Give the backbone structure.
Amino acid sequence: MANKLQAVPESVPVTPADPFDLDALRVSQDFEAMAGVKKQLINVPVRKPNKQDFVRVNPDESYRINLHVIVLQDDREVYVVRPDLYTALSNEVVTVTLFTAINRQGVVFLWPVRLPSSDGKTNAWWTSARMAAEQAMTKWVRVSANQSLGAYEVMTAESCTHEPDWPEQSLQELIRIAFRERIIDSIDHPVVKRLRGLS
Amino acid sequence: MLDQYRAVWAVDFEFIAYPGTRPDPVCLVAHELHSGRTIRLWRNQFGSTPPYSTDAGSLFIAFYASAELGCHRALGWPMPERTLDLFTEFRARTNGLPSVAGSSLLGALTHFGLDNIGATEKEEMRDLVLRGGPWSAQEQTDILGYCESDVVALYRLLPAMLPTIDLPRALLRGRYMAAAAKMEFNGVPIDTVMLERLRRNWSSIQDQLIAEIDRDYGVFDGRTFKVDQFAALLARNGIPWPRLESGRLDLSDDTFRQMAKAHPAVSPLRELRSALADLRLADLAVGDDGRNRTLLSPFRARTGRNQPSNSRFIFGPAVWLRSLIKPPPSYAVAYVDWSQQEFGIAAALSGDPAMQAAYNSGDPYLAFAKQVGAVPEDATKASHGPVRELYKQCVLATQYGMEAEALAQRIGKPPVVARDLLRAHRETYRVFWRWSDAAVNIAMLRGIIWTTFGWPLRIGAESNPRMLRNFPMQANGAEMLRIACCLATERGIEVCAPVHDAVLIMAPVDRIEADVEVMRTIMAEASRAVLSGFELGTDVTITRYPDRYRDERGVVMWERVCRLIEAAEAVTEAHSA
């Protein structure tokens, strides 16, 4: 008969294993381990913190670097300059510390803070920004420009003690993502030409 | 797969079951798959024990087994120790996917392209059974034949389904069908005198009910709810009300319920609208013994939860109607529910230490506010009630997948406050959110997500991310309830009904506290089973005769209705005097 299964003789005592051993029946709910889905970082802005954002700076020294850059103020764009071009472009280039920062929404960005110029000059904007970045290594801070003060003001969120989720990528990788299309590698670069009125 | 069983019985009963009554078995056909032996019994041939073995070496197979097992219960037969319910397994196989022809036996046969008895013929035979006896000899033959056709369908369906059945977990689900049968058999004790008074007077008191409640609102014209007057009421009171895409006010009961939480002043209006629109007292299924019984419909919901008829089940309609629940003389009922079950499940399964600490504090909402730094460490519900309420609403909002706009409406605050609350939740419970995101990713990547004990949800063309995100909490909550119901009914507790995250049990007054302790122990055990050792607490409300059960949310409405009934009856008496 089609409906007949392979017969087990009635005389053979069959006692299946306890099917209600709940420990044995449990199926993993560790979806995180199973999913193997990683958030890919495909965009890393280079900018100062938005004035409403609370931010933290990665205190790990390997997550900051001093670089020569050119800043297009009108376009709010920052270009990194190959070190060997520094002398040729010294009038356009400024030196900044790039801090790795993150806001409360988990957006990772590189925060450029000016270093003193080659003649050692500095100003309150630069020094206050640097102090803000240093404070942001241990606290969530909000940085806002006070024009009448001529410097940045810093507010700290004392009640917020959560440590941020820093990205796994190294600073080198973050820089590669951030400056993917913004590397000045020759004096013929369109940005240089534009600054020199040649385009 | 079934060779391990000495006997495999495919079983079907025909029975009579009027609304609210226990099943009255009419006939039985059982077919043993190894030997090919078939047993056909008419009702006068039923003995004191089943005509087949029910021990652990035998497998009992049925389609919608709680019906067959209800007949076992009615006949005083033991429950089979191993049950495979093909309805449940068909639901598991197709859960979340569009169905070809529903989840009935006919639907399952159609799904697999198997021949089946015509739907019309099935309907006629069901009517013949439900007509009740006496049946002629020919009718008996026909009914037995019809019953056997379902058994034949069963053992034809089995090979089609068997390769994909996860038998160990299917047996666990089958075990619950026995618990469901027992709970359906027990039913919920109802104050039938009060129910009758309510049914008799409901129509006549509606106008007074409207007049009484609408006195504070002025939004009814006769029995008609006037939208423009309601809009004016909202404007007068500065209540921002959700609107539909068309721009009209969203007047759905869901929205009313949500808004009533943020603006309690509209709560009576919501109760009234719901009662006028949805209350079908005639449908409430109460048997001659005063028990409310209806099919619990196990595994009907996508989450695997029971899905009993809203109008037939006492726990379905408006909460105020639950005051009809009343234990009989010398008995008591107890409502035992898990404390913050969803939050506890989320904390345990995600392994989020902050969330687990909040749950274990006994007041997760206040603990959340403390973890965020919104209240001092020594804050209490009394000292910081309003702040606690905000964080409670935030927790509930995340469980429902609510966005900032909806939460803002619910708490009556600007969206920026809601956004900050939701962000605080994400920051405080980051482990949970990673796990929750991963659950959605798993579902979308593999096309399936499952519970601790394997209840699956398959991802069809139209997946709902909010539902997916909530599935682990809801569906594991359902697992927990099923295990608790199995253990309780097997250990002699009289479970009247399962209710989402709770059970209603009954016992003699002098035993109720002992039974409650057993039930709480069982519920703790069930939580540990589902959550790998993490234990959820329970809360209890005991109601002893002559008191009636009360849900606090419905007390005002219930008392108002009772007052109106008394007034209406006084008028009737005066007229007849």
Notes: Chain B has a mean pLDDT of 93. Residues 465-490 of chain B form the longest helix (26 residues).
